[in-house]
Amino acid sequence: MARTRPGTRPAPLTAAVLALALAATACTPGDTATDEDTVTVGMLHSLSGTMAISEVTVRDAVQLAIDEINADGGVLGRQIEPIIEDGASDEATFAERAQKLLQSDDVATVFGGWTSASRKAMLPVFERNDGLLWYPVQYEGLEASPNIVYTGATTNQQIIPALDYLREEGHTSLYLVGSDYVFPRTANQIITAYAQAHDMEIVAQEYTPLGHTEYSTITNDIARTEPDAVFNTLNGDSNVSFFQQLRSAGVTAQDTPVLSVSVAEEEVEGIGADNITGHLTAWNYYQTTETDTNTGFVEAFTDTYGADRVTSDPMQSAYNAVHLWKAAVEEAGSFEVADVREALDGTTFDAPEGPITIDGTTQHVIKTARIGQVNDQGLIDEIWSSPEPITPDPYLENYDWAAALTG
Q1: Residue 7 Rama label (left phi>0; alpha psi -120 to 50; beta)
Q2: Model-level pTM?
Q3: Three-state SS string across 36-49, please?
Q4: pLDDT in the model for residue 29
Q5: Cα(113)–Cα(247) distance, rounded to whole angstroms?
Q6: How confident is the model at residue 64 (pLDDT cuts 50, 70, 90)?
Q7: CB-hemisphere CA count at 13 Å for 66?
């Protein structure tokens, strides 16, 4: 389990200031903001900055789930009232806004985050305050905290199935490109360890800052080195520039497919279908996923936000999180974090991706891996899926080749 990081030592307070501070923090997340009619939750996503291209739709999905639950009578007879904060694509802002939601707003739980940098910045805040964060996005694994429920995929539910798929298709040389922060660098350590164990070649590893837009050097190098495939861990609007410049460099999906793990339907729309058609993605859900629940989900989302809007894996996982939280609260008969945590194991929801279940040991979700291919309409068609839902293994304990990664 992740351990709480020590906080900084506070400066001495005068008696008056101390009294105000005590008053401001008299309520803790254990005494959640509820009355006879409402319960307050936090929504914390990047509504501005480089990650807004991805996170605004996640905010919308959380709001849709809240509206559905409220229309159905709420949670334990209370209506959910969200407090919306902007993480502004900045990890320090995510930590500061999380602290506000837990201490000043005294929310029952928080739905939020995208990048691993934002999650890791928030993690000590939630552990220090014993709050509960529902994190909706696939990530690099090697983490588990009693104060986070991970509703997106961990490594063995996305990255490893993606590598298995590429290898089975005969792609044995990979070019790695990613944003320069914890998720891509850790993911690429895992990819490199996998490659060494499976006779695959890593042609190059290149990293750029979030928001970077100049990719001609990298795309020309991809064209020159001719890898079998590119494994892409870029995040946010950098993907727009990367795929546009990749196409300009003459790299095609037929010759050198790019497999992305942070490009979903929302990002495809921003990139432009002409620039990414034929390239691959690895997720657990697509708008085209064929389940009865997904049909209703897509209709509800487009009815609410417009026929031109698309659904995606992260926003679907965020939507699922609200319903899973409701189910755990009602199982516990309480909004208190300790009670909800106790009720998490085995909590299920008939999600758009298919039925999902929380694994209480890791607080991750059991889910099916899916490989997709972008079509010329800007949607993603599923071309492969795991035979059955995959139990989360965030520390890769069941993979001998990963032993050196986890100590």
Answers
A1: beta
A2: 0.89
A3: CCEEEEEEEECCCC
A4: 41
A5: 31
A6: very high
A7: 23
Secondary structure E strands in 87-167: 110-112, 133-135, 148-150
The number of beta carbons lying within 10 Å of the beta carbon of residue 369 is 24
Residue with tokens 């040991």, as numbered in its chain = 361
Helices 159-168 & 182-197 angle (0-180, nearest 10)? 40
**Do residues 192 and 231 make contact, with C-beta atoms less than 8 angstroms apart?**
no
* 38-45, strands of its sheet edge to edge: 79-86, 38-45, 110-112, 133-135, 148-150, 364-366, 354-359, 348-351
Q: φ, ψ for residue 141 (rounded to 5)?
A: 75, -160
CA angle 151, 157, 163 (to 5 degrees): 145
d(CA 174, CA 182): 20
Rounded Cα gap, residues 197 and 199, in angstroms? 6
pLDDT tens digit sequence for 14-59: 333 333 333 333 344 444 566 789 999 999 999 999 999 999 999 9
Q: How far apart are CA 276 and CA 247, in angstroms?
A: 8
pLDDT in tens, 126-154: 999 999 999 999 999 999 999 999 999 99
Query: Comparing C-alpha atoms, which of 238, 245, 239, 231 is closest to residue 192?
Result: 231
Q: Quick one: tokens of 96?
A: 């500061």
| Type of residue at 29 | P
